[in-house]
Design goal:
One of its GO terms (molecular function) is metal ion binding. It is found in: Cytoplasm. The chain contains 12 helices and 8 strands. It is of the alpha/beta class. It is globular. The chain binds coproporphyrin III and fe (ii) ion (FE2).
């Protein structure tokens, strides 16, 4: 199968104060997020002058991918479009069509299965193509990469450097706390063709990162950034509640590692670096937040490797992965169907 382009598909974020509300409306349209929650999240963005770091992180990743492709002789143009903010994917697909692209691969900035992390991006692609019309390029999503060494190793190194900042005399009472975006329990139950895939993949990534970074330390997987109406159950415990439980049980020091994400965007710099850090301080816990892959060369090279394994007629032989969960290129049509909303 011949491909003539790659597109980086991101979440997107506002870059001016006046963009914050329209961005949040795009994110939450039809999703039953109460206005109080929206106002609260708008505050988090305004705290940073209305600028989410995520678009610049997408730009940096785009530049790094282009440089890596060029340095390794992969001659494919790389485009960038977002789900929720400019450049919107439909505009990018229009440009691709105008440039004569007919068949492209999409690298999505989420490693996992599940509705928000995988299926919704495929819906974004379908909607953008429908908006462009019958001559829109075909766009196929690259596979989930939760256990790829290019994702796991940068997270593990980040955990190691975070640990170096903690008091070694307290190692016996130090713990790793991995976090990912909480989702509604019903969405987690529907993730993947047999359910539970988002959580199962996160547990595997946590296991792999912990084993590589600090096999002697206990670790947990907990959740952050809960949204939605209060009566709808979401995955728990929340990272802040978990820190309280750890402090109560004698933990003195934590490394918090956001394995659910690929860059230090607003959910990281607000929910962890601001809120969870504050919680830890109140509890008297030593707290260091571990970094995310960002533009780590191994992560950037992973994008090229994912493309290479898809282009190769016998791509399975090129696959690099550390875990054991089932893996596929193309999701079955039934997976991650949206939870029915009340
Ligand atoms: C699984 C998952 C990921 C990881 C996969 C991936 O990375 O794609 C993720 C990433 C992100 N989520 C982000 C921001 C937001 N998420 C929201 C709301 C929601 N997220 C959900 C899930 C996820 N979200 C869900 C189930 C909702 C409820 C509404 C709905 O059913 O869709 C809201 C609404 C307000 C609120 O928080 O209530 C905002 C502002 C940003 C950008 C940060 C920045 O600007 O730097 C990023 C990368
Ligand atoms: Fe989110």
């Amino acid at each position: 199968m011949a491909y003539d382009a790659v597109v980086l598909l991101g979440f997107g974020g506002p870059e001016r104060p006046e963009d914050v509300m329209p961005f949040l409306q795009n994110v939450t349209r039809g999703r039953g997020v109460p206005p109080e929650r929206l106002a609260e999240v708008a505050e988090h963005y305004q705290h940073f002058g209305g600028v989410s770091p995520i678009n610049q992180q997408h730009r940096d990743l785009l530049a790094a991918i282009r440089a890596d492709f060029a340095a390794n002789g992969l001659d494919l143009p790389v485009y960038w479009g977002n789900r929720n903010w400019h450049p919107m994917l439909a505009d990018t697909v229009t440009q691709m069509r105008d440039d004569g692209v007919t068949r492209a691969l999409a690298f999505v900035t989420s490693a996992y299965g599940g509705y928000s992390s995988c299926r919704q991006y495929q819906e974004d692609i379908a909607a953008a193509r429908a908006a462009v019309g019958p001559d829109a390029p075909v766009i196929e999503k690259l596979r989930q990469f939760w256990d790829h060494p290019g994702f796991v190793e940068p997270h593990a190194d980040a955990v190691r450097s975070a640990l170096d900042q903690l008091d070694p005399a307290r190692r016996d009472t130090t713990r790793l706390v991995f976090t990912a975006h909480s989702v509604p329990v019903s969405m987690a139950a529907n993730a993947g063709p047999h359910g539970g895939r988002y959580e199962a993949q996160l547990r595997e990534t946590a296991r792999l990162v912990a084993a590589a970074a600090a096999p002697d330390l206990p670790y947990d997987l907990v959740w952050q950034s809960r949204s939605g109406p209060p009566q709808v159950p979401w995955l728990e415990p929340d990272v802040n509640d978990h820190l309280a439980a750890l402090a109560e049980a004698g933990t003195t020091s934590v490394v918090v590692s956001p394995i659910g994400f690929v860059s230090d965007h607003l959910e990281v710099v607000w929910d962890l670096d601001t809120e969870a850090r504050q919680t830890a301080k109140q509890l008297g816990l030593d707290f260091v937040r571990a970094g995310t892959p960002g533009t780590d060369p191994r992560f950037v090279a992973m994008v090229r490797e994912l493309v290479a394994e898809r282009i190769d007629p016998d791509g399975a032989r090129l696959r690099r992965r550390l875990g054991e969960l089932p893996l596929w290129d193309t999701c079955p049509a039934v997976c991650c169907v949206p939870a029915r909303r009340p």
